Fold this sequence. Notes:
Blueprint: E1 2-7, E2 20-25, H1 28-38, H2 43-46, E3 56-59, E4 62-63, E5 79-83
Parallel strand pairs: 1-5
Antiparallel strand pairs: 1-2, 3-4, 3-5
Amino acid sequence: MARVSVKLPVGMTTADGRREVECDAATVGEALGQAVAVEPRLKPRIFRDDGRMWAGVFLNGRNINAREGIATVLEDGDTMKVVPPISGG
């Protein structure tokens, strides 16, 4: 298990006002699951109704899709950032 920080999307905080959630997890997927357990409003900002991920998730500044996706292994001190997609015209 690694101790990592998951930074919440802009404008979102936990019930107690934090802008990030600390997690003990082995993979990105586990850390996201823990973050959603702490702040359930995060789930629809990361996952579609069918369970597929639609937000950008960055690990130490690098998109997890350039690595092993949610199976990417974490190390102590890693920082994850959730970036919801932006749309409009």
